[in-house]
Amino acid sequence: MSMNLKTSAESGFLLAVAGGSFSLAEAKRTFIEMLEAVARARVRKVLFDGRGLTGNPGSMERFYYGMFAAETVGKYADRGVSRTTRFAYVLKPPVLDPRRFGETVAVNRGMHVKAFDNFDDALGWLGIASADNPDSGDGK
């Protein structure tokens, strides 16, 4: 099963919901699809909900994805995607690496990204109020 991605422009951010089975090739394809939506929506915040993803990426896949994501954000500057765009990934183990290796690789290459296991924590990091808790958008 391949990965699928649905995007919607919300108030001040892009929501990207992914499902299916993780593979590096599919993750790269859907990341480009997500960046195209970021460019169209002209937003600076992305909430990636990958809780519907399955699989167990290895260390090298995490490394290559983090490197690819950071480099590709830079390549989309001429399309209106800012290098300061913040990406919050909400994932479940084992897709979510408890050591956040892929996140570290991307951050070390200049990408503003953080991985979470909790949807509200991701919203808070982006500075977006939760529908359940309007006070949660203060970044605390």
Explain this structure.
- This protein has one domain: STAS domain (Transcription Regulator spoIIAA, 2-Layer Sandwich), CATH 3.30.750.
- It has helices at 24-41, 59-75, 101-108, 119-126, and strands at residues 4-10, 13-21, 45-54, 86-90, 112-116.
- It is built from 4 helices and 5 strands, in the order ββαβαβαβα.
- It is globular.
- With 140 residues, the protein is of the alpha/beta class.
- The chain has a 5-stranded mixed β-sheet with strand order 1-2-3-4-5, sandwiched between helices.
Classify the fold: give the CATH topology: Transcription Regulator spoIIAA
**Average pLDDT metric:** 92
Number of helices: 4
CATH architecture: 2-Layer Sandwich
Number of strands: 5
Please identify the structural class as seen in this structure: alpha/beta
| Corresponding CATH superfamily | STAS domain
Shape: globular
Order of helices and strands: EEHEHEHEH
Percent of residues in β-strands: 25-35%
Instruction: Enumerate the spans where pLDDT stays under 50 for 5 or more consecutive residues.
Output: 133-140
Q: What level of helicity do the residues show?
A: 25-40%
Main β-sheet description: 5 strands, mixed
How many structural domains does the protein architecture include? 1
According to CATH, what is the class?
Answer: Alpha Beta
**Separation of termini?**
38 Å
Provide the spatial order of strands within the biggest beta sheet.
1-2-3-4-5
Rg, rounded, reads: 14 Å
